Amino acid sequence: MSRIHNCPCGTGTPYGDCCRPLRRSERAAATAEELMRSRYSAFAELDESYLLRSWHPATRPASVAFDPDLRWVGLEIVATEAGRVEDRDGIVEFRAHHRRGDEQGVLHEVSRFRRQDGAWLYVRGRIR
């Protein structure tokens, strides 16, 4: 029996219908926001392989360093600019909430995305 749980990205949708198909390469993200949400889910679940595959080759690091004591606990999309199905570039501003022990924190970032060969890719982010 499979256990249905909501996706870590905060849509309220079951994980199997939300970010899992993207992370398993069953389909591509339709929008920059959808890619952003799937990347948050990958950070929450320490999925380095997906993060690197969804990173633009021009800015992709060799590896992703995870903080083993950090737990991602919520995603809030603040704003989006372009990044729709018909766009080439997009921007997603978000707040990713986390905990480390008893301490809570927020990563506030404005991320840039680019569609390349029909797939959205993360280019870079600027911390606010």
From TrEMBL:
Stretches of the chain forming a coiled coil according to its record = none
Chain ranges of the YchJ-like middle NTF2-like domain? 31-125
HAMAP family to which the protein is assigned, alphabetical: UPF0225
User: Which family does the similarity line name?
Assistant: Belongs to the UPF0225 family.
Q: What is this protein called?
A: UPF0225 protein DJ010_06050
